[in-house]
Design a protein that fits this description.
There is one protein chain. The chain has five helices and six strands. It is α+β, with helices and mostly antiparallel strands and 192 residues long. A six-stranded antiparallel barrel has the order 1-2-3-6-5-4. A hairpin with a 5-residue loop joins strand 5 and strand 6. The longest helix is centred in the middle third of the chain and has 25 residues.
Length: 192
């Protein structure tokens, strides 16, 4: 489990996402390194996979840009086209009702959310996260660190991600960075 000082190194943001979770056993995590508790289509992870490819090719794109800026521009346009097509395809699988969207506090290390159910410390989850603004979906494992009652009768639950693949961590970091950029831009526009 992550130490408190390790947890603090991550940027935390409040973000509106769709969150579904299923309580699972630790053995399920051992038996299935990739979460399989949600029956999602291949399109669900399409944009996540494309972002992973973008990260893998970023260094190559910098070299292409240095050698041939025109070619780099054409490749960036092609990449944008692919991204838009993928968003259109993935948006069908990312459709969530506004009732399913909630504000969570999230970082690369875990998240805090409000639920109707109280969970025992140490219980494992399979979590399906959908970021409606970007149509990015992730399915991750987590462990409950705390689930405390609130004044409204609901429970504030804090969970830490476990066995998160590095590509998912990078995608989550990008989502957090982009959300921070949008919030800064909105704050700047509001102050004008």
């Amino acid at each position: 489990m992550m130490q408190d000082q390790d947890r603090r190194q991550f940027f935390r943001i409040d973000q509106h996402i769709s969150l579904e979770l299923k309580v699972i056993s630790q053995e399920e995590i051992s038996d299935h390194p990739q979460p399989s508790q949600f029956g999602v289509s291949p399109n669900f992870l399409l944009l996540s996979e494309l972002q992973q490819m973008d990260s893998a090719s970023a260094q190559l794109m910098r070299k292409v840009t240095e050698k041939d800026p025109n070619l780099a521009s054409v490749l960036n346009i092609m990449n944008d086209k692919i991204e838009r097509i993928a968003q259109a395809i993935a948006s069908d699988d990312m459709t969530v009702s506004s009732a399913a969207i909630q504000e969570v506090n999230i970082s690369e290390g875990g998240l805090q959310f409000t639920s109707d159910d109280q969970y025992e410390t140490g219980v494992y989850f399979s979590m399906k996260l959908v970021f409606p603004e970007s149509c990015i979906g992730l399915i991750l494992y987590a462990i409950c660190l705390r689930s405390a009652p609130q004044d409204d009768g609901r429970f504030q639950t804090r969970a830490e991600f476990v066995q998160m693949p590095e590509n998912c961590r990078m995608i989550l970091a990008r989502q957090i960075f982009e959300s921070q950029a949008r919030q800064r831009k909105q704050a700047a526009e509001d102050s004008i």
